[in-house]
Amino acid sequence: MAIPDFDVDSILQQLTLPEKISLVSGRDFWHTTSVPRLKIPAIRLSDGATGVRGIKFFNGTPAACLPCGTALGATWDPELIEKGGALQAREGILKGASVVLGPTTNIQRSPLGGRGFESFSEDPFLAGTLAAATIKGLQSNGVAASLKHFACNDQEDHRMSVNAIVTERALREIYLMPFQVVQQIYPPWTYMASYNKVNGVHSTENIHLLKEVLREEWGFDGLVMSDWFATYSADKAILAGLDLEMPGPSYARGAALRHSILPGKVKEYELDACVRQVLRLIKRVLPLGIEEDAEERTDSNPDTSKLLRSIAAESIVLLKNENAVLPFCPDKFTAVIGPNADFAAFSGGGSTMMTPYYTVSPLEGIMSECKQVGYSLGCGGWNKLPALSRLTKTKSGLQGLTMAVHLEPSTREKRELLEVIHVSDSVMDFCDYKHKSMGDDYLFYADFRGTLIPEESANYQFSCSVLGTARVFVDDQLLIDNATNQVRGDTFFATGTREEFNTIFLEKGRAYEIYVDFGSIATYTLEVASTAPFGGGGLRLGCTRVFDPQGEIQKAVALAKAAEQVVLCIGLNGEWESEGFDRDNMDLPGYTDELVRAVAQVNPNTAVIVQSGTPVTMPWVDQVPAILQAWYGGNETGNGIADVIFGKKNPAAKLPLSFPSRLEDNPSFINFGNQGGRVLYGEDVFVGYRYYEKSKTPVAFPFGHGLSYTSFHFETLQVKNDGESFLISVDVANTGVADGAQVIQVYVAHIDPLIPRPLKELKGFKKVFIPVGESRVVDIRVSVRHATSFWDEDRNMWLSAKGDYQLLVGDSSANTPLCHQVTVEENSWWKGLCN
Fold first, then answer.
1. Residue 695 CA to its chain's centroid (Å)
2. How far is residue 455's CA from residue 457's CA, in Å, rounded to a whole number?
3. Residue 49: its pLDDT value, please?
4. Could you please report the per-residue DSSP string of 354-420?
5. Please, what is the Cα angle at 575 between 680 and 506, to 5 degrees?
6. d(CA 819, CA 822)
7. What does DSSP say about strands 538-545 and 512-519: parallel, antiparallel, or unpaired?
8. Exposed, middle or buried by CB within 10 Å (0-12, 13-18, 19+), for 698?
9. Nearest Cα residue to 615 out of 742, 705, 747
10. Could you check whether the bond before residue 356 is cis, i.e. omega within 30 degrees of 0?
11. How far is CA 441 from CA 251, 434, 486, 526, 733, in A?
12. pLDDT for the residue numbered 794
């Protein structure tokens, strides 16, 4: 049935005060509130930084997962990113969602930020340009984007309470600039305000951010919503222009907002301004024709797989390739080694996680291309034990476990069976699981069963962490009791228990029955200290074969010696980089560095594949001939890696953020994380490459760096200045041995600035495909205002400062061989967008 259209102003006049109050808060976790009397439907929102999950965390509807944000940033390709946004729009419609919560375009001021992998870049211009491309892909297909997180949500430590202390200049030039660029190119229909404070005021109550900058200066005329549970007041948030509190039922509005209206703390016309934006958004997405509580659907198809594979391959950065070791030959015996080889690290953790249509591990991708492959683990690379579900099968032969749900505990002889569910992943969040027979306390019990048949005789270590209670049995033997004496840990957003372990010897080929007796969060013996509703709680079950680390390295070395070429897959995964916590350091896990050195020493044809969302230390960088940065590559992770390794795809990606050699070299090193309730942005505007160049601090790999299997030559730089923009033209030739693409990067340097400025800043770029032996004239237009301005804190305006500037053109921030000098004759101050 088609949803009726409506006139916003007419409906607004007909609404009662209670109806208005209800509209500015969500109905539930994922829907706005409807007004049936006036036929105003609820609309659905869904997480969507790199894919659209739908509304279920537990046993979610399978979805298309794109590479992570930094991987998308590494493509430097707005046209390709727009196609990814269009795919997200199609996926959103399949999931019944009219609003996708993304893209994320915060700044990676530190490699340690837990959600750094979600954002595009340390550079605000690159980040904003690619965010705009994602939004165009979404909204040109009718699905609203919610650009996030506005603003300075650059760490997870105390993210709801921490006060980001930042100068107005740094705020404008770095942290608000990606959003400003988006407003200039392709504005979103909604913004999401962040959890944290900015200069003493929470973003959701921040009049300076939401009214003075976003609406008045930039002319944004859409909806502003809160991040989930980030609305902390009834009146202040309304007065600042926060239109929608999410999720519902309301925590901060409802009766409290009505009480604020009665004494006039909030005028009804001020409430109306927020209601109007909610109604406008609902009206805007009506053409999608999505029913209010639509069933979620899937559509895994060859076209989607092809696009995802292309984006995964396009995102992989060739950091190093001495002696042209890569590409490898698929006809040669190839050793595939490392903790990330037989594991698809397709995404970071937190709200970006979803149930993928499928995943392809690097080992699977390489085996599909290479005739002779040997595999060795080499070392462990996990933060928590790998999921038990990888090793178990149900009675019907499906991978995973069978979950039988009851209202009574297992001590009851006769209890009613509510339902049986197949669980493919033993990392389970029951926040949104509820059977119709359950009460509001989410009290339920579940038996998890599966069969484990070991591939070799060995000791096996099991683990269990829980938000609730759990006991793990192997063939009726109690192995782990995580119900009697529970200890809090870092699981389930630091609300669940620590990971409890025990070890048992298992024989090769024998079938072992695994049984887990689980009680939901209502049985938890520890206090749940959080405002977020965890519903039924959570359960995480892990298992791995116990091995001697040195012995495992020696197995890998023996394989590497026997092989003609080695693919060494290392890095992090979604349990190292995730929403909810920040990393402690930049180091790779466990024995990874030792493994890399040992393998590289015995085989000179070794390519190291690093998977991480943000930089890691590489103390062995000079000891290996080839390094690829492969990020988290989505559904097609392994195929994308294989395409680049074997030369089906000539790498053209560039780093969207600098890779420092050490954490201590990072400009935020002494000012990252919560310190007495605040975080001081002491590096000011000198973030990323702006700092490394200004301080002459060497890096492992510079911003914008990325090699190719071919070579390019830049020549004949010409610049035309019409007063409004610089038209930059450069000849680029492919002088190598293969067709390929190059990213032409334009940086601007103020020769003699009045105040300290970065040595140069990215102001334009274009990715161009050039066949071998051919050349192209590449034109890039750069706004004079955007290229020459800094924030004048004295006048509280942008200043396009008079003086001489260099336009620098090259293929990375460290390699700009072409230069042209231009002059700005007069100072000019301005506000608004970069016209």
1. 30
2. 7
3. 84
4. --BS----HHHHHHHH-SSEEEE--S---SSPPBGGGTEE-TTS-BSEEEEEESS-TTSSS--EEEE
5. 150
6. 10
7. unpaired
8. exposed
9. 705
10. no
11. 18, 10, 20, 16, 67
12. 96
Same fold, 25-287 and 382-546: no
User: Would you tell me how many other CB atoms lie within 10 Å of the CB of residue 387?
Assistant: 22
CA distance 180 to 626: 38
- List b or e across 134-146, with b for residues whose CB sees 16 or more CB atoms inside 10 angstroms: bbbbbbebbbbbb
Nearest by Cα to 192 from 144, 260, 239: 144
pLDDT of residue 341: 98
Q: Are 405 and 596 in contact (CB under 8 A)?
A: no
Name the residue with tokens 């066949």: 771
Determine the Cα–Cα distance for residues 762 and 76; give it in Å rounded to an integer: 12
Locate 691 and state its tokens. 């700092």
pLDDT tens digits for range 649-688: 999 999 999 999 999 999 999 999 999 999 999 999 999 9
Peptide bond into 247 cis (omega under 30): yes
Which single residue is written with the structure tokens 């030039």?
Answer: 173
Q: Which of 77, 123, 154, 227 is catalytic?
A: 227
Whether residue 435 contacts residue 405, with contact meaning beta carbons closer than 8 Å, is answered with: yes
The backbone region for 677, taken as left when phi is positive above 0, alpha when psi lies in -120 to 50, beta otherwise, is: left
Question: Residues in the chain with pLDDT < 50?
Answer: 1-2
The helix (H) or strand (E) run that includes residue 202 is: strand 201-202
Give the H/E segment covering residue 78.
helix 78-94
- For residue 331, the tally of other CB atoms under 10 A from its CB is 11
Q: What are the start-end ranges of the E strands in 549-605?
A: 565-571
Q: What pTM does this model have?
A: 0.97
In whole angstroms, how far apart are CA 87 and each of 129, 189, 190, 347, 692?
A: 18, 18, 19, 17, 37
* Catalytic residue flag (residue 77): no
The residue ranges of every structural domain in the chain are: 25-287, 382-546, 712-830
pLDDT at site 432: 86
User: End-to-end alpha-carbon separation of the chain, Å?
Assistant: 44
Strand order in the sheet with 761-770: 761-770, 740-750, 803-810, 818-824
User: CA-to-CA distance for 30 and 291, rounded, in angstroms?
Assistant: 14
Q: Which fold has domain 382-546?
A: Jelly Rolls (2.60.120)
Domain boundaries 25-287, corresponding CATH code: 3.20.20.300
C-alpha distances (whole Å) from 5 to each of 33, 108, 144, 176, 281 are 17, 42, 17, 35, 12
What size, in residues, is the chain?
835
C-alpha to C-alpha distance for 533 and 118, rounded to whole angstroms: 24
d(CA 92, CA 141): 10
pLDDT at position 3: 60
Distance of CA 120 to the CA centre of its chain: 9
Tell me what pLDDT residue 739 has: 98
What is the rounded distance in angstroms from the CA atom of residue 279 to the CA atom of residue 364?
48
Strands 99-101 and 144-150: parallel
* Per-residue tokens: 262: 């009665």
d(C-alpha 101, C-alpha 86), whole Å: 14
What is the second-level CATH architecture of the domain 712-830? Sandwich (2.60)
- How far apart CA 147 and CA 43 sit, in angstroms, is 18
| Strand partners of residue 566 | 335, 606
Q: What DSSP string runs through 766-788?
A: EEEEE-TT-EEEEEEEEEHHHHH
Strands 699-701 and 659-660: antiparallel
Task: Tell me the C-alpha distance between 529 and 220, whole Å.
Answer: 37
Please report the pLDDT score of residue 624 as a whole number. Answer: 98
Tokens 């020549």, residue located: 715
